[in-house]
Design brief:
alpha+beta, eight-stranded mixed sheet, 10 helices, single chain
């Protein structure tokens, strides 16, 4: 067994806490068997270390028997089976998952596996609706496409030696660097990083009542957050090193003085125009029940996703991509050269008790330290630093003496 037993115990504890949480309305199911979970995690982890025809293995497995799938999924989580079953079950082994590489991606499909007293086997593949996108979500569905991911332990390979553990599409946690990291509340909550994002777009919020001054402010904030979250999602899927930094417009000149500008650009991807157009069609559809407005909004969403992916493309060039809050590109491939930050660095506030991940930035490399120094020099700047090993960290200067960081901004089980 490659994974240590403590990791299995940690996953079980997180699953138990999620199951019994008073506000998550989980179906009351038996806690996964420790031995079953150990087999599931270890085999998928081993598969993540393999290659098949020169390609890394990316796969997903849900631990559920045929009987439980039939009794507890169909009619509640799924309108029908929507599954392919193997005539002869396949041994649940890492090399078989490698041979089946690419069939189950965890976003819209997963293998179905379980164990008897003598062996474990893969008995099928099920398909489901993917997780709703922050941009482009269709607000209604017909019964024929009502198929959700199974509400059983699902392990998806996200990279070499990295896995994500979910149930019914909700993230329970991740295995990275040989450790289990529990899912936590999204950093975009207004009591966390969200408050600094609101300041970037000049929107005030009543933090006690969680309310905006106007519906226009609420719409603008939602649109901005959706775009930021989409960028984070694409960075997470690509799993490459990248730095994306938002700079307050009034400090654009100061920011440019803190870097070498070999790839400084001017012009616009007109993302702010698409955001305004999207809101216009959305209101048109809501107020008049106009299907034309609905379909036009979806068309705008398609263009908006393409433009935001273009920003992530720019972030793939060595160096940082700098953006205004309206997503105009200040420059890309920027070499940050701010003075070294020697003051306080702390984990940012959270809204629930979690184990704080203490980061030693001196060991994180040039990309992280350059971003750290930059946000220390430019008040109000918000940096997102993606690592090829998975985490996407956020950095912001909270006071003149302190920088806050959050160790991971990827999708979590909790909403804002």
């Amino acid at each position: 067994m490659l994974l240590n037993n403590q990791l299995i115990i940690d996953v079980l504890a997180a699953w138990s806490d999620d199951q019994s949480h008073p506000y998550r309305d989980r179906s009351k199911k038996p806690i996964p068997n420790e031995q079953d979970l150990a087999v599931l995690l270890d085999v998928v982890f081993t598969a993540s270390l393999l290659c098949e025809e020169g390609k890394s293995v990316l796969t997903s497995v849900t631990w559920v028997s045929r009987d439980d799938f039939e009794k507890h999924e169909i009619g509640r989580m799924r309108e029908s089976r929507l599954a392919l079953e193997f005539d002869v079950p396949i041994d649940f082994e890492a090399h078989n998952l490698a041979k089946l590489n690419g069939i189950a991606n965890g976003r819209s499909s997963t293998f179905l596996a379980c164990r008897t007293e003598s062996s474990a086997y893969i008995w099928g593949v099920c398909y489901f609706m993917g997780r709703p996108e922050p941009i482009g979500e269709i607000p209604a569905m017909t019964m024929e496409v009502r198929h959700f991911s199974p509400d059983y332990p699902t392990v998806t390979v996200t990279g070499v030696g990295s896995m994500q553990i979910t149930r019914a599409g909700s993230v329970i946690g991740r295995v990275e660097g040989g450790k289990f990291l529990r899912a936590q509340a999204t950093v975009f909550n207004s009591h966390m990083l969200g408050q600094y994002l609101y300041r970037l777009i000049d929107i005030e919020i009543d933090f006690n009542n969680q309310s905006f001054k106007s519906s226009e402010d609420a719409d603008a904030a939602t649109s901005f957050f959706n775009c930021v979250e989409f960028i984070i999602e694409v960075l997470s899927q690509r799993r490459t090193g990248a730095t994306v930094i938002f700079v307050p417009p009034r400090l654009r000149g100061n920011a440019l003085a803190e870097m070498d500008t070999a790839w400084k650009v001017h012009g616009s991807l007109e993302i702010d125009l698409l955001q305004r157009t999207r809101l216009k069609y959305q209101k048109q559809a809501q107020e008049s029940k106009d299907f034309i407005g609905f379909f036009l909004r979806l068309k705008v969403d398609q263009a908006l996703r393409q433009r935001l992916r273009s920003i992530v493309d720019l972030a793939g060039v060595d160096g940082a991509v700098l953006l205004t809050p309206s997503f105009d590109v200040i420059g890309f491939g920027m070499k940050l050269k701010s003075l070294k930050w020697v003051k306080d660095i702390q984990h940012g506030p959270v809204i629930q008790p979690i184990e704080m991940q203490q980061l030693d930035f001196s060991r994180l490399g040039t990309r992280h330290n350059s971003a750290l120094n930059f946000v220390g020099s430019i008040e109000g700047a918000v940096a997102f630093v993606a690592s090829s090993d998975g985490p996407i960290r956020a950095l912001v200067r909270s006071t003149a003496e302190k920088i806050w960081y959050w160790p991971d901004c990827r999708v979590s089980m909790f909403a804002k």
